[in-house]
Amino acid sequence: MDSSFRPLVIGAQYPALERGLTADILSAQGFRATPLTVCTSHVVAGHGMVTDVLEVPSDTVRAQLEHVFETASPTAAKIGVVGSPASAEAIFEMLETYLDGPVVLDLTLSGPSGEDIVEPETLEIISERMGAAHLVSASLTDATLLAGMEIPSLDDAQVAAQRIGQRGASHVLLRCGRLATHHFDTETEAPNYAVDLFYDGDELAVFEAPFVDGVGHLSGRSSGLMMSILQSLWSGRSLVDALRASKAVVTEALREASQSEQASAASAYFGALHHRMLSDVAE
Questions:
Q1: Closest by alpha carbon to 222, among 10, 14, 20?
Q2: Within 10 Å of residue 130's Cβ, how many Cβ atoms?
Q3: Residue 136: Cβ-neighbour burial (10 angstroms; 0-12, 13-18, 19+)
Q4: How confident is the model over 137-153, as pLDDT tens digits?
C-alpha cells in the first residue's frame, strides 16, 4: 500500500503574497510532500486590498485536473478559491469521480480586506456541492457571506455554523479568532484567546488556544491549519483529533513567528510550522 501523502491543492495564485497556492505549497512541504497544484485564478493583491481577479478559463482548469489525475495519484485535496461557476462544477465533479481520499474546503469568498472575489452563481454551486467535503472551514468574513448574517459573538457563530450545515456542509469549522462569547458582550473587550467553532451536524464544540498578538498581517495562516487537518485525516485520525492537534501545531508556530527576529514573519511561521508538523507526525 502506498503510504505517500500527495495533496492536490486547488486555488488562486497571489503573485505578491504568500497566500493561496503559495501558502499551500509551503504548508505541504512541512510533511515533506510535494503538492499537486491546480490554479483557478490569478489575484492581483497586496497592502490589504484586491485590485483584480483574473479567472483561469474553466477549460484550462479542467485540463489541469485531467492532467493531475492522469499523471499522478492524489491522496487528498484542499480546495480554496474555485474561480468561475464552470470551474467550480468541474472541480467538484472530478474530485467526486477520481479522488479516493479526504477533501477539505477552505471556503474563500473574499479578499484580505473583505472584498468579494466569488460570483453569486459560484457561491450557489459551492453551496450545492460542499457536502462532498469532509470539512468546510471559513473565516468569520466568509462565514458571514455564506450564512447571510453578521457574527459579532460566539452565540451568533453557532447560529451561522448551523445555517451552513443546513446548506449542505456535513462538518463546519468557523475560524472565529478573538470573539465575544455572548451577543450582549460585544461592547466589552474581546477575550485573550482564539476560538475555532466546530459543528458536526448535531453538536457544537469550541477549540480554544492562547491568542497570539502581532501576526495579524501574516498571510497563509489558514493554509497551515487546513494542510495539517488534511494530513491528519489522510493518516486516519478522527476529525476532532485532527482539529485539536492541528490547532495546537499552528498556534505554537504563530507564537514562535511572533517572537522571531527573522526579517520575514512568513518565513519564521512556515519554518516553525514545518518543524512542528514533522514532530507531530513522528509522535
A1: 20
A2: 22
A3: buried
A4: 999 989 998 999 999 99
Contact 145, 116 (CB under 8 A): yes
Contact 205, 169 (CB under 8 A): no
Q: What are the tens digits of pLDDT across the range 168-193?
A: 999 999 999 888 887 666 566 667 88
Residue 112, pLDDT score: 64
Say which amino acid occupies 3. S
Q: Which of 53, 57, 28, 35 is nearest to 43 (CA)?
A: 53
Q: Whole-model pTM?
A: 0.90
Q: From residue 132, how far is each of 87, 99, 129, 165 by CA, in Å? A: 16, 11, 6, 12
Residue 50: HSE in the Cβ half-sphere, 13 Å Cα cutoff: 20
Write the pLDDT tens digit of every residue in 15-27: 877 889 999 999 9
Could you tell me if 231 and 76 are in contact, meaning their C-beta atoms sit under 8 angstroms apart?
Answer: yes
Q: Which helix (DSSP H) or strand (DSSP E) does residue 265 occupy?
A: helix 265-282
Cell matching residue 227: 494542510
Give the number of other Cβ atoms within 10 Å of residue 151's Cβ.
Answer: 21
Q: What is the DSSP letter of 177?
A: E
Cα 24 from Cα 44, distance rounded (Å): 18
Q: Where are the beta strands (DSSP E) in 131-184?
A: 135-139, 172-177
